[in-house]
Each structure stands twice: as C-alpha cells, then as structure tokens.
User: Fold this.
Amino acid sequence: MMKLGKKNIALLILACLIVAQTYVVFAEEAMSEEVVTEEKANEADEENKTNEENDDNDDNEENKTAGRTIIHSLETLTEILVAENLEIEKSKLNHEMLLLNLEQTLEDYEELQEDVENAKDLVEVREKQVEIVRDELSDLATDTLERSQALAQLNWNIQLLDAAERSYEAIIKQEARMMESLELMKLQRDQSSRKKKQEIEKIKANFKKNYFQLVLLENQKEVFQKQLENLDMLLETEKVKKNLELTTQMAIFELGKDRSKIFFNIRNLENNIEQIREKIKTDINVSVDEDLMIILTIKENITIRQFVLNDVIEDFMNNNLALETSLRVAEVKREVYEKIKEAYEEDDNEYKVAFLEIREAEINELRMRRDFEHLVKQAYFQHEQVRIDLLMQLQEKMLIEDKFEHTKMQYDLGLISELQYRASELQVKQANLNYVSAKVNYINAKINMELLVEGIN
Assistant:
C-alpha cells in the first residue's frame, strides 16, 4: 500500500508542476531580441526626439551623435540608400568624363578625316604622274638616252606612289579604328540615362533582398526562442521525474543536447542578423556607434504576378544595354569593313581581319542572346516554383491554425497539458515561419523577374 501511495503522490506532483507552468529561466534568455514593431519604433522615436533636443543644448559635437537611435522603414531606407550610394555618384562622374572624351575624340576624328582626304588626293596625284610618264615612255624609241631617263623617272614615281598608298592604307586603318571607338562612345552617351536608372533599380533590388532576409532571420529567431522555452519546461519536468525515478539521466542528457543546439542556432542567427544590419548601416552611411532600428514588416497578403515567358524574353532583349551594345558593335564592324575596303585589296591581311571581325561580332551577339534566353528561362521557372510553394505553405499554415484552435479549446477545458499546448503552438509558429520563408523567396523571385523585364540582369 505504501508503494502505491508514493506513485500517486509522484503523479500528483508532476501534474501540479505542469499546470503551475513552472520552468527555469536560463541565463541565455538575456540575449533574446524582439523584432522592431511599428508601436515600439514610435516609442523609440519619441525618446530619440527627446535625446536630440537635449543634444542641441550640448556644446560637445561628439556627444551629439553618440548613442543616437535612428528608426527607418524600408521605404525611407531605400531613399537614403539611393542618395548615399557611391556607385551612382561615380556613374555621374563617368558620364561627365565620357562627354569630355567624346568631344575631344570628335575633334581628333574631324582632323583625321582631313588627313585621310589629303592622303587620298596624294595617291591620285601620284597615279596621274605615273600615267603621264608611262605615256611619254611609249612614244620614245628604245636604246636612247631620253628613254633611259624616262624609265628612271617612272621608277621614281612608282616608288612615290607606293609610299603614298602605304600612307593612305595606314591612315584609313587609323580612321576606321577611331570611328569604331567614336561610335561606341556615342552609344555609351545615349545609354547613360538608362544605365543610371537600371543601376539604381538593381541597387534597390539587392537592398530589398537584404531587408527581407532580415525579416526572415528575425522570424526564425523567434521560433528558436519558442523552442528553447519549451525545452526549458520539458527539461525541468524531466528533472522532477528523474527525482521520482520516472525517467533516466540519459533522457535529460539528450534534452540538454537539443537545448544546446537551439541555443547556438540562436547565436548564429543573431550574428547573421547583426551582419546584415551593419551592412545596411554602411550602405546608408550610418556610423557604427549609432543604433539603427529597422521597422521590419512584410505584407500578410502579397500580390502574385503572372509572367508570360515569351513576353519577358522579348522585353529583356529589347531593354538590355549589353545586348544593344553587342548589336551596335556588329554594325560598326561592318562600317569598319567598308572603310578598309577603300584602301586594301581582298588578299591583304587587314581586309581579311576586318571581314572576320564582322562574323565574330555576329557570333558574339547570337551567343549573348542564347545565354540571356537561358537566364530568363531559369528565372521564370524559378518564379513559378516559388509561386507554387507559396500557395502550398499558405494552405499548410491555414490547416495548422485551424488545428490549433481545436487544441486551444482542449487546453482551456483542461483536457491536455501545457506541454501539449505549447507543442501545438510551436507548430503554428513553425508553419508561419515556413510561410514567411516562402513569401521572401517569392518576393526575391518576383524582384528578379521585374528586373529582367526592364532588361537588367
């Protein structure tokens, strides 16, 4: 009878422990960090304004910025990013230098064209001189002093003609290469505004990806912290059961191992979160000692966009600057070839090289088109895959939430333990995390597709 009494007492103690919701709060909980919400951001913003007002009365400029808290949403962060981005500023300088170089090249090209005309005129003069001497030579009798002198004069004029032709060939070649360089510089000038716009869109897109990655990591951290809390409760329960000889030390040891894994997972997440935050701070020119609070939000329902593969490929090909440049290079090579034909014969190397360069440019264009088509198709089918996954995760989330409502009802009626309730609650958080992860993946895929439509790769 005494044995039976002890067991009943043990079970009663265990039940009381679970119902009382007692668990050990570990020291590692001090490292937990909440996602910044709109409400908390507003509270911090008010505090920040007060600090700034106090700072205005401080004569020490260094103390004015120390410990300052900056709060921004994705929209304001993106605006600051564009304003502070050095690549955009550099592109402006490059455009100005391009215009100066283009102006100088145009002047040099005009002078070179005059030299080409002069060289061509000289060749024509030398050709006429040779014809005149040959005509005179045909009228002279053989074996005479006059004929010998005429032959010497003909030989001299032929040498002058040969030198003039070589000079004309060299300057035509120089003109063709300068024309090639000039036409590509003109193309860069014409593309400048579109290139700047595309660079801004690409910078903003990459920034958004970092932002939504931060959202995902914060959600992952929240789930891990919930797992840690549940394990803490379960571990304490197991310890009580061990004292009552209802479990083994090995079971406690395994739970401790699981807890350590989750603890270090949280540490790794925090490190990744901090890394992204610091990258964002650098991108928007915020110093290390300033605390950047980011309002992390993601829409509950995001718009699913339908893309048509043929339309995306066509739009990309029409808007891509690299392909446009490749097309123009092929055209310029044909213009160079026509220039070379003016001074070189078909068996000359320069003539052959100019002809082969046309074919090379055409092949490069075709190869670029095929590579880009592969790129667009890969992005398109990836978008379709994550779109399907998003819908699947949404359905899974809704099913688990419905199931949790039933579990909550059972818990409220005292039909299940708190551990069972917490396990079900964790399933909801995990399902929500999976859904957030699917949303982030879809947002990134959608961003990529929208860039491709604009011709940005």
